[in-house]
Design brief:
mainly alpha; 2 strands; 95 residues; 4% strand
């Protein structure tokens, strides 16, 4: 079963650089990985937001049209996709 405790030497560890937190279940690690996907910091006001696109449209409509920002948002989205894929891999490995 996915929620069963794993042996001590097989504890799942967060692969996110600088984190390294360990868990007693793979489900716990999968749940934890979601923390690394959000929030993101707005490059204009440094506020942490859950969804950068809507924040830019609402709070920074002129700056949101900037080409550099569009590329930065694209990079953040790609990182989020990478993290979600990793979460799916971990969940699939334990089902």
């Amino acid at each position: 079963m996915a929620d069963e405790l794993v042996e001590q030497d097989a504890l799942p560890i967060c692969p996110e650089p600088g984190c390294g937190e360990s868990f007693t279940t793979h489900r716990g690690l999968a749940s934890h990985m979601k923390k690394h996907a959000r929030p993101v910091e707005c490059p204009y006001c440094n506020r942490e937001v859950r969804y950068l696109g809507p924040h830019l449209i609402k709070d920074h409509p002129e700056q949101g049209k900037d080409d550099q920002l569009v590329e930065g948002v694209r990079e953040l989205v790609n990182e989020n996709v990478r993290l979600r894929a990793r979460i799916a891999e971990l969940e699939a490995a334990n089902s």
